[in-house]
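Form P-L/3: holo structure prediction, ligand iron/sulfur cluster.
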Amino acid sequence: MRYIDDPERMEKLPGKPLAEDDRFAFRCHPDIGCFNKCCRNLNLFLYPYDVVRLKNRLGISSDDFLDRHVDVVMRSDNHFPDVLLRMADNAEATCPFLSDAGCEVYPDRPGTCRDFPVEHGVRFDADSGRSDLVHFFRPPDFCLGKAEEQTWTIEDWAEDQEAESYNRRTLRWIEIKRLFLRDPWGPEGPNGRRARMAFMAAYNIDRFREFVFNSSFSKRFKVKPAALKRARIDDDALLAIGLAWIELFVWGKPSSILKQKR
Ligand code: SF4
Ligand code: SF4
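OUTPUT (holo model):
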């Protein structure tokens, strides 16, 4: 998922644009000649919910997951880092979760892997302030799945891949990420304390839990009681507080679940 502010840039994106009711032909299965070929040498962006699902799947802490499995990169067009899944250090740069039998984390695979070969974007119109979802069919040349007979709409495909909940959460993240087109960090820059705290709230859920439940957090912030109760036992609910906290802490934006105490 990417955000697109510039209509001219959107026109140049590769792949075939898909309208809601367009159908595309695709089928992927273990007997296909290209099986697993797409799980290597990827720039696979991980969004906050991807990390929660993967680290729980692997039974490791979010600290360990970040240490072992991600590269954090700062791009010139945004003031919040991107997180990429680190490919294995082998000749083909395979995904670390790829085995001969396929994806070892399949039930919790990242949203991008679920959407593939569809890619979503969010188009912002600065004049009207409106945002629309746009979709592209982008199988790589070597992907034989596009020659299969089965056809899908975007909605059918998302349902089949259990991708709707991922897409909803990614959209929420993209809303926040878009705020970082402006630099909020000032002289302390993107490696300062505030930036590191915001990164923790988005990507290091176990550290964020410590911060919420074992610091002066509750003295400084008012969390909706039901949300806080759920967050004690549910990483996804805790992440919702984390994202609301970034908006409040960095941008001063209160939300229905989180406010500053007076
Ligand atoms: S390249 Fe396409 S058809 Fe082949 S395994 Fe990947 S998604 Fe499936
Ligand atoms: S997470 Fe699974 S589906 Fe995604 S690239 Fe890795 S092996 Fe392939």
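COMMENT: Residues 186-260 form one domain.
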